[in-house]
Structures are given as C-alpha cells and as structure tokens.
Amino acid sequence: MQSYSCVIFSFRYTSAVKIFCDVDNIFRLISSFPLKKLTFLVFTGEPRFPFKKLKSLVLSGESIFPADGLRVFSQNITTLTSLTCSINFLYKNDLLLIADCFPLLKELNIEINNPIFQCQTNFKNGTHSLLSKRQLVNNRTDFINEIHSLLSNCRFIQHLNLECTFFLNDTHVAGFSLFLGDLVSINLNHCSRLTESAVFSLVRNCPSLSEIKMQNTAIGTESVENSDVYPQLKSLYLGRNFWLSNENIIRLASFFPNLQLLDLYSNNNISEGICQVFRRCDKIKHLN
C-alpha cells in the first residue's frame, strides 16, 4: 500500500464505524501514514499495532494507569522516547513499569488528577469502586518513592515535568538529580517548597541541563554557598518568586554566565539586579 505524508491524523472510532470497519481494516488505513505520535483516550495495547517506529504516545482520560496495555504495547514498539499519561490513580510500581517497558524514554509527563496531589480535583463518580486488589499510591511519600524508582531505572530522561508537585522539597530534588545525567530541561513551576538549593543540586549533577523552570517557588528565602560556575544553563524561569531580591539575582547571574533567557515576571523592586545581569551575562537575548 502506498504511503502518504501526514502531519496530523484524526479518527473517531464510533459505534457506527464499528459496524463497517473492523480493527484490522482501521489499522490498514492508518498504517498508510508514517505517524510518529498518537493520542489515545482508552488504551489496551492492541498487539497488532502497526506503528513500529512510533516515537511519542499520549494517553488521556484513563482512570487508572494502563499497565497491562503498556506491557503489550512495549513488546511490539521499542522506539518510544516520549510518554504522556493523564490518570486519576496510580498503583505502586506503575512508574517502575514505565522504566521496564521503555528504557530509552527521554521525555515523561505524568499528570495525576488526584485530591492527594492536587487539592482542587475531586474523585470522579464511580471510580473509587474500581480500586480494590492492588495497592494504591495514596500518599506523598509513596509518590516520591515511585518517582525515585522510575528515575533510577530510566537513565536517559532529557525532559522532566514535575510541575505543581507542591510537596516536593530540596532533598527530593537533590536525590533525583543524581540519576539525571542526560537531563536537558526540567519544569518545577509551582513547587512551592523548593529553594535555591534545588537549583544548585540540578546544575551540579546534570551537566547537560540548559533550562530550569522554577516559577512560584521559594527561591529567595535562603541562599546557598557556592563558588563554582555553570556554563551549561541557558534559560532560567524565576517569575513570581516574591522573595527574590537584587542580591539574589546578582548572585545567580554570576554563577550562570551563559544565560540567554531570564524570566523574572511579576518580581518587584529588582531593577538594580537586572542591570547587573546585563553586565555579567553578555549573551542575554530575552529578559522578562
């Protein structure tokens, strides 16, 4: 069958479609397009899956982690480097399963819509009754342990998003960073317990790290003694860190001489520090 170029492919598998198209026919249709990214609302890991070179998988709308589906999927697809999964509940060892199934993973986004982790989210009706035999990750310590197990077994991660993990602290980040030698970017926005110490743990242990996002954290509440320079960091997002002072900004600029982007959105009374940034970081191209 002839192949065609396709940037975005959309297909809705409705009850009407089921009457006229079996799974094999659908697979034959979509396999005509050299897709590298797919999004599923319900995922079972169909063993006849035709995309042997798939790079990115997005799972959205799952109540629980699709462990069985991912096991089947990983037996047929070995090229996956990016996984995004939005779920309501996480069982113990689910994240470790990701490392076992996809050892080459470079980008990981896990969104847990659970009141334990996000206080504004409610349980969906009827979902709780489905949770029975397996042990849930139902507290913050369990979640941190799961992340630790995942990162210690999946050493190729380049892009990590832990945004809004509000109970994450500097000690956690220091531990994680030891496993992230290939890390290029990290998003820790709205992790309100993190301080300057987390920044230095990351740049010390992640020699390829070029971007840190730490908006709305506790940077500025305390300072860390440091005498080293970290030329790898190019982008630093520190917006809405209301404890930041001119002194903090000047210190940080002296440690990161190759900064090209510095975001200080919504931070007041730091004009002197901004002037010093331009003097110390002559490669600055974007300053907010």
TrEMBL record:
InterPro entries: Leu-rich_rpt_Cys-con_subtyp, LRR_dom_sf
Name this protein carries in UniProt: Putative leucine-rich repeat domain, L domain-containing protein
